[in-house]
Design goal:
This protein has about 400 residues and is α+β, with helices and mostly antiparallel strands. About 35% of the residues lie in helices and about 25% in strands. Bound molecules: zinc ion (2 copies). The site of one zinc ion has 4 residues, from strand 18.
């Protein structure tokens, strides 16, 4: 068994070699919280060992973020600092790779003026839109991972002693990301091959529609012509592999923007904008969300749907079997990076350009014309359970079972 230090080194290695797959003479930008300085330094070390030209570390601090939301005037949430956007655009233009380590408390902004949260989400989406376009069309290599924070660990493991919460969360993260294995880079190669095989099956089937049924869900999603399923590793436009999420268990594509009808209910809480949203129910007509309901956080959810025109539509359809490593752990992470990889999910907002053939070479207008939703936002929410069935409807109308009782039917 590996020691904690060995697993942490593995984790940093995964961030650099598998996640961002940093190449010699690249810049590396790392976004991390002050609670994870040790990990940040290890990533920097691995980055330089991999030949980084320079590693930039940006430290976030939950405590300061909360102070800002509590005390700064409302007007301050109506603009995004242009120099922060310029920094990311410059790095993207100069071929940098990006690593984001998520640690924030899932309900960091609970009780904060909802207008501040909504306004800032909106202006951040606008401010970072150029950078987001670069990442969502794979012009840059990027990866999202996670590391514990005190509040997040406390939320997940409330019944444990305080000093046990962070170590237990670390172990769960190491296991979910295969960092606890002797050779995690090799393990990710094998995992990637398994996901690729599923992607190929789905691409060959080339469904016209998917029909979801479960308690609280009866939803039909049309898929665009020439849609492509994706899963595991991505390739950037310079031809280098990277892994956008660690962990990842999903295969996904884009819906046809105007082709979603029916209703869908969430099966896990969603942490969005520092708030927890529970028991979401969305109703769709011709792709558009016509009714928004939630047992908790309904205002935050409604504000999300009102972000822009595109946030009234879906941008991602993702399949994850109920029987999968993160789901089997039985843990609720309150962190989408993990919870989405334990459950079928959908995303409100922007679709990935690479989910359709030749999409990464198309303009935003061309993508919109072929039915790929455009939006400043992209927020996944979880809908899977052991009670979910999904049928694939072929171009000729014939039906193929895709999921039965939450798991792959083929
Ligand atoms: Zn997803
Ligand atoms: Zn997503």
């Amino acid at each position: 068994m590996l020691s904690f230090q060995e697993k942490l080194e593995n984790y940093a290695e995964l961030a650099v070699r598998v996640g961002s797959n940093l190449q010699k003479d690249q810049y590396l930008f790392v976004d991390v919280t002050v609670e994870n300085v040790e990990l940040a330094r290890l990533i920097a070390k691995k980055g330089y060992e991999a030949g980084a030209k320079r590693v930039f570390i940006q430290y976030e601090d939950d405590v300061v973020t909360r102070l800002h939301y509590d005390h700064a005037p409302l007007d301050e949430f109506n603009h995004f600092p242009i120099w922060q956007a310029a920094e990311k655009e410059w790095l993207a233009d100069h071929g940098a790779a990006f690593i984001k380590i998520k640690s924030s408390s899932p309900d960091l902004l609970k009780g904060v003026d909802a207008e501040k949260v909504a306004n800032f989400q909106k202006v951040a989406g606008q401010g970072l839109s150029k950078y987001r376009q670069a990442s969502m069309s794979n012009k840059v290599s990027w990866t999202v991972m996670a590391a514990p924070s005190e509040d997040w660990a406390a939320m997940m493991f409330a019944t444990l002693e305080k000093d046990q919460q962070i170590p237990v969360l670390w172990e769960a993260i190491f296991k979910a990301t295969r960092a606890d294995l002797e050779n995690p880079v090799q393990a990710w190669k094998e995992h990637d091959a398994t996901l690729s095989a599923k992607v190929k099956q789905l691409n060959d089937l080339n469904f016209l529609k998917l029909h979801y049924t479960a308690p609280g869900t009866d939803l039909t999603i049309e898929l665009p012509q020439n849609h492509l399923w994706n899963g595991g590793g991505s390739k950037n436009t310079s031809g280098f592999d990277f892994m956008a999420n660690i962990p990842t268990e999903e295969v996904f594509t884009a819906p046809f923007k105007d082709g979603v009808d029916g209703y869908v209910s969430s099966t896990k809480p969603l942490s969005y904008g520092g708030n927890i949203i529970e028991q979401i129910k969305l109703t769709f007509e011709k792709g558009r969300i016509t009714k928004v309901e939630a047992a908790e956080g309904e205002t935050v959810l409604k504000n999300l749907v009102e972000t822009d025109e595109g946030s009234h539509f879906l941008g991602e359809v993702a399949l994850v079997p109920h029987k999968s490593p993160i789901s089997d752990s039985g843990l609720l992470y309150y962190n989408t990076l993990f919870d989405e990889n334990a459950s079928n999910h959908l995303a409100i907002g922007n679709a990935y350009a690479f989910c359709v053939k030749d999409g990464t070479t198309m303009s935003q207008e061309e993508l919109a014309t072929i039915g790929l939703n455009r939006s400043m936002t992209h927020v996944d929410f979880m809908i899977g359970s052991g009670e979910m069935n999904i049928d694939g409807i072929a171009q000729d109308g014939s039906i193929t079972p895709v999921f039965r009782n939450g798991n792959w039917a083929f």
